From TrEMBL:
Domain Macro: 62-227
Pfam families (UniProt xref): Macro
SUPFAM superfamilies in UniProt: Macro domain-like
Segments forming a coiled coil: none
Protein name from the UniProt record: O-acetyl-ADP-ribose deacetylase (Regulator of RNase III), contains Macro domain
Lineage: superkingdom: Bacteria
Amino acid sequence: MKVKNLVTLTSIYILKKEKLVKTQSNKTHLKMLILKVNLTLRIFLFNGKEKICCIGSKMIEGGELMEKRFNDVQIECVTGDIANQTDISAVVNAANAVLKSGGGVAGALHRAAGPELAEAGKPIAPIQPGQAVITQAFALPNDYVIHCLGPVYGVDKPESSLLRQCCQHAIRLAEENKIRNIAFPSISTGAFGYPMEEAAEIAVDEVVKQTKHLRFALFSEKDEEIF
């Protein structure tokens, strides 16, 4: 799943509603901050020249999907539910240490998967900040759930390293299990208090180094973009 010769960018692009906006120059890695309520992203990486184009839109199960391509990154955006990503092999759970249901992403995934998901977590819990473990997905429309425990901001140190480890360990598990594609939520930005700007930059910076096909499913309580 690793990408060879990943093209570097000279700008940050932020997806605002239906537009990709060039906001800043002199950056060496792809850093995308997707900061819209219930926004779901899939990112494909290619080799080639920088470009921005709208491919079009179509209806899929769960919402309208917008396809865009820029700088050899194809993005599919759909307003939807991380627990209803029917064409994704694995979803990442922003888990708690004991791998039980809770609020936000964990609650949504556990409700959709059924009680078997919590049962499957018992033998491998508790996990530590930065760790990731994998289980079956049960009633979810996916093959696997990868459970990551992100850092509590201001408590678990160093936060940035632990968040990077979450992403690295999740993708390593995906590779080991021959998972074709993966959906990430925004880890640690809810009850754990991690600032969205910092968390989004770290997460995307890590995953684009290692995978060809991923989806960011980001959930926020505020209907606003940070930039």
